[in-house]
Design goal:
By secondary structure, the protein is mostly helical. It is 45% helix and 6% strand. The protein contains two helices and two strands; from the N terminus they run H-E-E-H. Strands 1-2 form a two-stranded antiparallel ribbon. A hairpin with a 5-residue loop joins strand 1 (62-65) and strand 2. The longest helix has 54 residues, at 84-137.
């Protein structure tokens, strides 16, 4: 149940079952996808590629004519692409974290050593004060 009239310019329909004959301009020709996936793993899934395969070679490209008349091909920028630069950046960040941790560990050791010295000094001071009090009481 839908109401169809001559005043409608567009109708949204879904083909459920294909009939005997093709509908001209609708089911008689195949139109390729204009846009393909942009994410690296989605491209891998579409073309069933391995991790080793270069995803950049399998991007869905489309031809576009420029104003001057030249035909140029356009492709999307691939997201989540593992590049040597990305791996280098990751290594560098991990190295920085490791350095920070080592520096913190050294600072903690130095602090603990200084704290021990301070407590030792306090003990000595108390001992000398107690000795002075004992001398004055005798």
């Amino acid at each position: 149940g839908c109401i169809v009239g001559p005043d409608l310019s567009v109708m949204c329909l879904v083909l459920v079952k294909k009939g005997e004959n093709d509908i001209e301009g609708l089911t008689d020709k195949m139109i390729p996808r204009r846009l393909g996936p942009k994410r690296a793993n989605h491209i891998r899934n579409l073309f069933s590629l391995d991790k080793k395969d270069d995803v950049r070679k399998f991007v869905v490209r489309r031809e576009k004519e420029t104003k001057s008349g030249k035909i140029r091909s356009k492709a999307p920028k691939i997201q989540r692409l593992i590049t040597p630069q990305l791996l280098q950046r990751k290594r560098h960040e991990r190295a920085l974290i490791r350095k920070r941790m080592e520096k913190g560990k050294e600072a903690k050791e130095e602090y603990m050593k200084r704290l021990q010295e301070y407590h030792q000094e306090l003990k000595e001071q108390k001992a000398t004060e107690l000795a002075k009090k004992k001398k004055t009481q005798e």
